[in-house]
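User: I've been going back and forth on whether these two constructs are worth ordering. Before I decide, could you fold them both?

Assistant: Sure. I'll take them in the order you sent them. The first construct and its structure tokens:
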Amino acid sequence: MRKLFFLLLLLLFVSGHEILYAQELCVGEALYCDMRSGTFSPLFRALRNGNVEVIKRYISGDMYRQTRVLLEENKAYPQFLRNFYKGANFSVERAITAEDDIIADVVIEFPHGSKSLTRLRLSKANDQPWKVVSEVKSKHYKSK
């Protein structure tokens, strides 16, 4: 009887855990292509090229506020970006819908072999392209 109780408890925990993620939906192919080609491709290219004017077109909200001084006032920042992202490859590992936004896991692979994972929130207003509005910290979003 005790084993049955723990088995049922475990079953409830596991099924409840899945319910927590029921609203996580992977983005559809059309939405993924729109986000990738309309935002990430030009943004990643701009990061590698140090093109701050293009970068500013694809970020807004908290992301823009946090990087505004670097993008607008730091004359050395474009060269820093070119050096930092030289030879780096960017990829979107996963993208899900979260209310009206998209949460995307972006992997950056550097030429020396290290990888970096960044979780970004994207929003879209009217006919504008998707824009990166913030980095999502793990306390704000739990992945499966």
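The second construct, handled the same way:
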Amino acid sequence: MDAIRNYDVRVPMEEHEHGMKSKVDELKVRGMDAVASMKRTMSTRSAEVRRTVAAKAAGVQQNMRGNPAKWAGIMTGAGIGLGLVGRYLRRRSRLRNMPRLVIIEAC
């Protein structure tokens, strides 16, 4: 509100335009600085994520090589489980009583 009260109506138009232009330029510079800062932040975070993922992948790969029987058992159990679920769903769909004739009555 103070800015509106203190605004001098008698300011020449050239000074007003120059002031607006400097404000716009200042906002552009601030925006570019914010973008540059965000790019740096994203770059560092993505590098950290890449390093973390690479470390985790190496650990999992080492674990799989160290305990192949464990992983084979896990995969076998998962396969058997999926097979049983598929067999159950197929049998259930065949046993469902689906109407052969549907009559829709309109009033």
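Notes on the second construct follow. The chain has a mean pLDDT of 82. Residues 2-95 form one domain.
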